[in-house]
Amino acid sequence: MSAHPQPTPGSLHDSGHATPPASTSRDVTIGVHNVVTHYGQREVLHKISLDICRGETMVILGGSGSGKSTLIRHIVGLEKVTSGEILVFGKNICGLREKEFNQIRKKIGMSFQGSALFNSLTIAENVALPLREHTELEDSTIKIMTRIKLESVGLAGFEDYFPSQLSGGMKKRAGIARALAMDPEILLFDEPSAGLDPVIAAGIDDLILKLKQAFQMTIVVVTHELASAFLIADRITVLDKGHLIATGTTEEVRASTHPRVRQFLDRIPDQDAGGAEKYLDSLLN
Ligand SMILES: Nc1ncnc2c1ncn2[C@@H]1O[C@H](COP(=O)(O)OP(=O)(O)O)[C@@H](O)[C@H]1O
Ligand SMILES: [Mg+2]
């Protein structure tokens, strides 16, 4: 697959369809080209194409089960595509050898839905972990870097706490600090505010905005939270049952006339939501 010419935004891809240019003048950091993904026999992503440009915040919006996590997990090699390409910094990571992929992986920080901290390690040790694994830095340097990362997420002074001693929002922040440990060029968030109360969730949105301004990283945020999406995004991509149904600036998506996009943005229940009623009827009759 690496023999494929590297497409530029808006160029013709394998299918012969022109992918709409995300931006013709900016660098593409992540290129998703005609990606099809299966879990077993079931196809869950149907020919997804999407460009994410350097320094932008792209929000992947969509209902539960629409394929958002699968898409973002492709970027860090946690799921394999059935066909298509994922280009990161211009390199197709599908089929890359482990050593080569790890070089790219180091430049990507990911904040997982459940923050995925090690409970037996302190917050500082959790944040330091990627530095200990991937660098030869001295302990004293790692300590300083860890403190800076914790400060940048508002957790200064919590170095010696264990995850169990922190609230949900603080754990989330610690997970973000760990994602920042290696000074990544790409930062990925899977449902950053899931399970948090609205005020704490708003704090995480603020933090993402702050990180975006401070570090100019390319940020991809997966969420089903509309308000959060429109607050933090430069551009939004909407997935619906594994189909990409909209991609554009927040204004463009807000003005979309696509019926499924409208339904999602206007929070209109599915027509066949009556399915539950029909099912109950069928049991009774
Ligand atoms: N590991 C898995 N094995 C089988 N099916 C999966 C797996 N992960 C996700 N799926 C299915 O793939 C579809 C997309 O899931 P996912 O990417 O998690 O969606 P989202 O993050 O938008 O909720 C869903 O129908 C889900 O049930
Ligand atoms: Mg998900």
Description:
The chain is α/β, with parallel strands linked by helices and 285 residues long. It is 36% helix and 23% strand. The chain has 10 helices and 10 strands. β9 (235-240) and β10 form a beta hairpin. It is globular, with a radius of gyration of 20 Å. Magnesium ion is lined by residues 68-69, 191.
SSE arrangement:
Elements: E1 28-39, E2 42-53, E3 57-61, H1 68-75, E4 83-88, E5 91-92, H2 98-105, E6 108-111, H3 123-134, H4 139-152, H5 168-180, E7 186-190, H6 198-215, E8 218-223, H7 226-232, E9 235-240, E10 243-249, H8 250-254, H9 259-265, H10 275-284
Parallel strand pairs: 3-8, 3-9, 6-7, 7-8
Antiparallel strand pairs: 1-2, 1-4, 4-5, 9-10
Helix pairs in contact: 3-4, 3-5, 4-5
Quick overview of this protein structure:
This protein has 285 residues and is of the alpha/beta class.
What key attributes describe this structure?
285 residues; alpha/beta; six-stranded mixed β-sheet; four-stranded antiparallel β-sheet; 10 helices; 36% helix; globular; disordered N terminus; binds adenosine-5'-diphosphate; binds magnesium ion
